[in-house]
Specification:
- It contains no helices and ten strands.
- It is an all-beta fold and 153 residues long.
- The model has no long low-confidence stretch (mean pLDDT 96).
Length: 153
């Protein structure tokens, strides 16, 4: 099934270097860097996967999970986020697909009470391992602010 194996590159254990903005959507440049680990395995006969993360954020370490599911009828992936800082809230799914080595996934969401678009970009191989990036747009996708990246190795 075309697209169902798009995330197979991620199925293993990883060390992760995080880089994130402390202040978002305010033109800040207050990046912080920290480590973590990630482990991804397939579920649902390969039509999805679960990613278990240890995020060693200087503000407080926590566990988090990404749940991904492939819809064979539409060829689209949905990605949900869940973490122990708010364990009863499953995030709005970002939706998209891969074209070549790059996947782009977008959703309407809110940040600090205001409507935004959120975008995840997955790069399968950056020469040192996969990379994930998160960006927010306050203007319906006209401009994007990169606010978090994860380099997997």
């Amino acid at each position: 099934m075309s697209g169902a194996s798009d995330f197979d590159f991620l199925h293993r254990n990883w060390n992760v270097q995080h880089r994130k903005l402390s202040t978002r959507l305010e033109g800040a440049d207050d990046w912080i860097e920290f480590g973590g680990t990630s482990s991804t395995r397939p579920i649902m006969s390969g039509q999805g996967n679960i990613e278990d993360n240890v995020i060693n954020d200087p503000g407080g370490a926590y566990r988090a999970a990404a749940l991904r599911a492939f819809d064979g009828a539409s060829g689209l992936w949905r990605i949900w986020w869940l973490d122990l800082r708010s364990p009863s809230t499953l995030g709005v799914p970002v939706v998209g697909r891969f074209e070549g080595g790059k996947g782009e996934f977008i959703a309407d969401d809110t940040w600090m009470g205001r409507p935004i678009k959120v975008r995840f970009v997955w790069l399968k191989d950056t020469g040192i391992g996969p990379r994930w990036e998160q960006s927010f747009s306050p203007d319906d996708g006209q401009t994007w602010e990169l606010n978090w990246s994860m380099q997997f190795s």
